[in-house]
């Protein structure tokens, strides 16, 4: 009977952890995608100073969340996004619109994929 | 390397803890579902142990989920006889009163070579000497010899002792 109670407690903890992981990933992904969209508007207006501030903000969100994301997300994906963020920062610094747009799309796809993998869907199940 | 070392310790502790929660069973006494869980756990724990790119929890969560499922199934089969029958099946009598029940053997795909091997391991050579041979749900063969072929008990010896003559 003891083991049944212990198993039930572990089961509830797993469910809580899985749901909170999903909610957290979803929220972070949304914040990051919003920040990227804002950045695109700044770059389109050639407001490189605001773009730099926004990418710093984006980078801060990412560096705070990556520690927790490592619990659910494959570490290779996190490392890949790190590399893309470095490239997008350089693009803003060098004022290269083309490179910025390319890197922005790659980051967007990777964040979307990372978030979608946590979702409960038929596509992920099978 | 240090991460691999630490991950191994964590996973080993999780597996030992999980198996401890699952209960005490010898490998030979495992039900089919328990054997499946044991094999899957051993395989699951090695993946995040070797590949540090995979989150540790993607190994730990399936391990504990399997253990929880196993505990839930064993609890349900303890409470419900029908469910137990579905999960573990029922024992099959394959020798009755010294005669092979071939239809039953066909049904469970148990051949005569396997049967003879099991009989020899348990010290029986002739099928005629056996009252019942039952293939249990955990795969073990239980043999009940005919009364005349059973080893004598202390009671048997006591009862058959020649009476002492009164002088």
Short description:
The complex is a heterodimer of chains A (126) and B (167). Chain A is mainly α and 126 residues long.
Poorly predicted spans of chain A: none
Shape of chain A: elongated
Spell the H/E element sequence of chain B.
HHHHEEHHEEH
Helix content of chain B: 55-70%
For the report, how would you describe the main beta sheet of chain B?
A: 4 strands, antiparallel
Order of helices and strands of chain A: HHHHH
How many runs of DSSP E, i.e. beta strands of chain A? 0
Q: End-to-end distance of chain A, in Å? A: 35 Å
Mean pLDDT of chain B: 84
Distance between the termini of chain B: 89 Å
Task: Give the strand order, joined by hyphens, for the main sheet of chain B.
Answer: 2-1-3-4
Q: How would you sum up the major sheet of chain A?
A: none
Structural class by SSE content of chain A: mainly alpha
Strand content of chain B: 5-15%
Helix fraction bin of chain A = over 70%
Q: Helix tally of chain B?
A: 7
The greatest interface here is: A-B, 17 and 17 residues
């Amino acid at each position: 009977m003891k083991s049944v109670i212990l198993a039930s407690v572990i089961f509830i903890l797993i469910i809580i952890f899985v749901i909170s992981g999903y909610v957290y990933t979803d929220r972070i992904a949304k914040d990051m995608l919003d920040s990227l969209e804002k950045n695109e508007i700044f770059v389109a207006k050639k407001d490189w100073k605001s773009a730099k501030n926004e990418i710093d903000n984006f980078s801060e969100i990412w560096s705070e969340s990556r520690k927790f994301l490592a619990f659910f997300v494959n570490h290779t994906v996190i490392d890949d996004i790190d590399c893309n963020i470095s490239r997008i920062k350089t693009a803003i610094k060098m004022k290269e619109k083309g490179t910025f747009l390319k890197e922005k799309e790659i980051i967007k796809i990777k964040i979307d994929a990372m978030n979608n993998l946590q979702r409960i869907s038929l596509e992920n199940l099978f | 390397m240090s991460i691999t070392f630490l991950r191994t310790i964590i996973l080993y502790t999780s597996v030992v803890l999980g198996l401890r929660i699952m209960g005490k069973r010898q490998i030979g006494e495992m039900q089919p579902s328990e054997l499946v869980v044991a094999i899957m756990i051993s395989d699951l724990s090695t993946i995040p142990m070797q590949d540090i790119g995979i989150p540790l929890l993607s190994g730990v969560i399936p391990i504990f989920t399997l253990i929880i499922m196993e505990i839930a199934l064993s609890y349900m089969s303890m409470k419900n006889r029908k469910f137990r029958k579905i999960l573990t099946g029922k024992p099959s009598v394959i020798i009755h009163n010294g005669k092979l029940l071939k239809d039953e053997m066909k049904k469970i795909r148990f051949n005569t070579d396997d049967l003879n091997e099991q009989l020899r391991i348990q010290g029986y050579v002739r099928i005629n000497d056996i009252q019942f041979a039952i293939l249990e749900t955990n795969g073990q063969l239980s043999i009940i010899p005919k009364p005349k072929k059973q080893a004598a008990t202390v009671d048997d010896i006591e009862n058959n002792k020649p009476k002492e003559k009164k002088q």
